[in-house]
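Ticket #408: bound-state structure for 1-O-phosphono-beta-D-fructofuranose.
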Amino acid sequence: MTEKTSRTPDDGIANRSGPAAGRDAPVILSNQPGSFAWGVLAKRHPALIQQVRDAFPYGRRQHEALDALLDEITRGVVEPLAPSEHDHAQWADWGREYFGRPWFDAPFLWAESYFYRRLLGAIEYFGTGPWQGIDPFAPFKRAELRGAAVDEELRALDALADAPPDERARALLHASLWGNRADLGFRVTEGEAAPGDATGGLVVDDGAVLWQLLPAGASTTVAVVADNAGRELIPDLILIDHLLLHRHAERIVLHVKPRPYFVSDAMTADVVDCLRRLAEAPGEAGGIGGRLWDAMANGCLEVRAHPFFCAPLPYEGMPEDLREQFAAVSLTVLKGDLNYRRLVGDRMWDVMTPFADLTAYFPGAVAALRTLKSDVIVGLEQKTLDALERGGGAWRTSGTRALVQVRR
Ligand SMILES: O=P(O)(O)OC[C@@]1(O)O[C@H](CO)[C@@H](O)[C@@H]1O
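RESOLUTION: The complex was predicted; output attached.
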């Protein structure tokens, strides 16, 4: 089976944003029925509205707002935020070209981001009433964190405790990488991603370059831009502990989302839940949790939640204060599929476009750890592409392949 990729007509929306803007790589839209992007808007978002509706005893006003949102995203055109909303002006600017047009004709990245903003609006997350700040995805995140799979993953750490540091480092890097498959948004319609071969599934492996950038004993700061909470954030935190323990970094800044986003994206509350889960676990995991708890207290681990992490924009458009933060660290590690799309630009790139070219704008060395869950991919070698195409299947989007890409 050859997978159907998203339609990307050069309709004028396309080539105005993202790294290497002006190159001939159209922005991904969602208006090709059967494409991955179309499926997210046509099926995943409506299913998500239903899941959220079922998970909370919302009142009539919220149900009506969810009904209206469902109708709008499936049959209507993109409506702006009400002028009374705190971020009305910001979204009026970001959405100027798309309001009044079908959702499916807006850039895929923009449409998804705005959908999550509107969903939060519908359930009164930003209101002044009792539902203010109630994370609509919290029940799903909590259930995952409590699950037996996490117990098993934490127990497995005991076996790694005495492994040589290099072997442990590699295993923990891969755990963090493949942890990205655990994405609750991805599972709304796809089910559990088929198990990938946790080594053979790598389509690019710049792991050696990553470790070269993190020599033991370096008194540097590393930034980690988190993706999902729960089963992804736990191995991210364990990797962070390893970096600190073995002096690959003196300090880690963990960037999370300031509000609920893409279902399971991590916020500060999720970091706290994961740290507690680790600290309360027996064995090696408990020790890691304790060290990380202390690292928060002594400033070796710091959590930040910049609003730009929920912006519908590629990282090339990052604000100056965030640019300065990334410029000040020895390496920025970006986790997950959405961060990858924002890093290289959500476009149908020629898959052999060098990763280094598209990330040249990024302020400092950058590493992407990502399982493949959308159409965007760059930096492949011809022989890898040939093998993937020969294998057939939805290799770009099924979450069964992964990559470690690094630009020094
Ligand atoms: O960033 P993550 O959690 O790895 O992935 C986010 C994701 O599930 O969301 C999009 C669909 O909604 C896809 O691009 C991608 O697969």
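RESOLUTION NOTES: The first helix runs from residue 36 to 55.
TICKET STATUS: resolved
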